[in-house]
Protein 1
Amino acid sequence: MNRKETIMAVTVLVFALGLIGAIFLSSLDKPQEKKENTENAQHDETNSDGHHNSDNAQSIGEIVDLTNESEVSVDIKDFKYTKPNIKIKKGTKVTWTNQDAIQHNVMLDHGDNSNAPHNAPKPNEVKPDVFAGPLLSKGESYSFTFNGVSTDPYHCSPHPYMKGSVTVVE
């Protein structure tokens, strides 16, 4: 190779490395999403990042009185909690089961009125006395026993417009 060809080869190499570096750095600016099995997932209106629009926030509706049950099951299906607004007795165990192909969870509201997605606890970080479940894949469940009288509004951490509430009475 002569000097001109060497300079051209080095220039092309530097340009290619710069392009690869720019692509890598731009990927660091974006939040990393967890891998989700989205095959055959049912979606309604979505925004540019593929998430459901928060304008379609779930209405939690009327309270369903389940005070005569010691264990309650709630499915998560079609980006909604099937019984989003329940009243239970103190000591009742509530189990949420994800029926969607997309991961969901349940987590006590933070009180900051934020509709921004945020991290759910990892399975090894879940505490029996803290109402915050891990991300659940299709068919997985999370249970929490409510031991105190309270009203506990909750949401799905990656989809905070999915809302529910548990009212606990004596």
Note: The beta strands are 64-65, 71-77, 80-81, 85-89, 92-98, 107-108, 141-146, 150-155, 163-169.
Protein 2
Amino acid sequence: MLIDLDVPTIVSSFKHDLSTFTFIPKSGLRDIKKQLDILAGLRGHPKRTIKTDAALWLWDYFVSRALNSITPNTRGYHKLSAYFKHYSHYEQILFAIDENHRDHVIHSIWVMMIGFYLSRQCHPLSLLRYPAIQFDRANYIKKIKEAEKLMASYEDALLVLVFLTHDLGYPIQKTTIANEVMSKMTSNFGLLPQTKFSYQFTVLHQTAIDELLNTLSTVILWLPNGQYRLGINPGIRLDYSKTLEQFDHGIMSAYLIQRYLDFICDTMSWYRHIPDYTEKDIKMAVLRALIISWLSAIADHTNNNKYFYDLDDITVLLIISDELDEFSRYSHHRTRDTWVTVNCKTSINCTRHSLDFSYKHKNRTRDETVSFFRGKVRRLIDCFDLDKESISKISIKCVNSSSKPDNNVGYYFEKRFNTGDGFVKRLRGKPNYDVRGFLNEFVNLN
């Protein structure tokens, strides 16, 4: 099904969905819609900073109420909320050093709206499964059905938390770029040391790191008697430890959330290394599955060790929504000293067996278009383990229309099951099968 994304359609659909969110009171609908209109530019053309303020209000409103609908224990949330406000101030620095940097406060709100829109419009993305709660389906019993029903009642709140917190760890990753810019200046003075700003955990952090890795790799094993056991998958744990070593912003987001929210520590506390120890509290199993699903989804969206086989995965919905948001990207015009919204129309053709992304820009240069295209291919080429029985094809098309004929270009990438890395080409050009060479900027598309 081909789905075209534009601002009025997405905002209108999300406003309609608001009445179905059980954690949103009717008294709050008017204020929410007002802030959405400001964010989307439906009330004149507000400055970027005004849109950011609207996004900050929406973020705090939705995260706090989604969290409250899951647990009354919200100790530590005020620290997470304060961090997000500081996060917004920190991004002002990043705009000055990265011309293509997007406002991630605004971005998180768009990802949420796009995600809910796709989950309503694209059937394969609406049937989400939760591996933690469905582990060992051979022992499918009545209590598991009860757990899945309770899990479904929390789904909207869970999606809100996933969409709005997936990029909280971004400052750690982006600060390396700031360091490179600053080091170019300080090197001119000669006497200043040429050391890079870096991070490392110490032994004091080891317990928190171990518990995060344990949480992300926890599985729930249901027994025929209706009880369950909790266990840790060592292979999954190792995968997450690799992405943690790279300080990927996905798993750093999960680390920050676990560090601040007290209810995660309380809920994920269980007796280990005790033979034959079982539990039977269904709600506690669901709460644990919610935490595992939340933290693993945001950790997995940047985890290069994770591959996806089907579309019925909450992380896949996050990744697709993340890649389709081009509504919140700004650039700083070098000569006029103004903020410019990047004009890009996005669409996706989504079936159970294929994903086709389309991006249509206006008035960009040829170099900007090919750079954008290369970034999208680099991001998505290894996300999916293609198989003829599940996702068997992925494609990306980027087109730019410009008043300057030389900038009217288009590029296409396609990868199918059992075809290696696929191919890249200019539209109406010949396929080039050296995709890795193109990604490494060794190959040009003629």
Note: The chain has 17 helices and ten strands.
Protein 3
Amino acid sequence: MTSRLSINIRETVRDSGECEFRIRNNRAVISPEYVRHLITVRKLIPPTDDNLNLDAWPWPVKIRTLGGFTIERDGVPLSFTGKVQRQPLALLKLVIAYGGRDVSEARLIDTLWPETEGDAARVNLRSSVHRLRKLIGADALRNEDGRLSLDPARCWVDAWALSVTEHLGCTRARIGLLQRLLSRG
């Protein structure tokens, strides 16, 4: 009976909206951990309805910038056993500071390596991009037409979640979200 129930559940949970609904509402039919597992295995992308509870989604990359800077990859906090990757992390912070989407390489170069000549600065950027992709995953950072973007379907950034509440004018929700985000630091 249990295995048949599992098969039926697997067949009914097909899209990200259903998975997000089950996680948020903690449905007794299926455990939130199992839903997270299904999302991960099926590589489902999160719903795009500006939902404020998407911090519960099993994001491949979670970046916290409020109350300290931390990165999780597949639910595991990044830790460095040797030398800290300063340039890739500085690049990531700058991409986030500039909005996380369509940040021009020229702007990044001008900010990170203002004294470095053109070709050397581009080599520095390419090296930092390569190293950053190793840290957070190659598909989490896109480079298209000389512009860097974090993939919003693969990366969750706490500042973005706060920005969504601001955009929607949800003062009470924004305060609650900010308190939750800062309490995790």
Note: The longest strand covers residues 61-64.
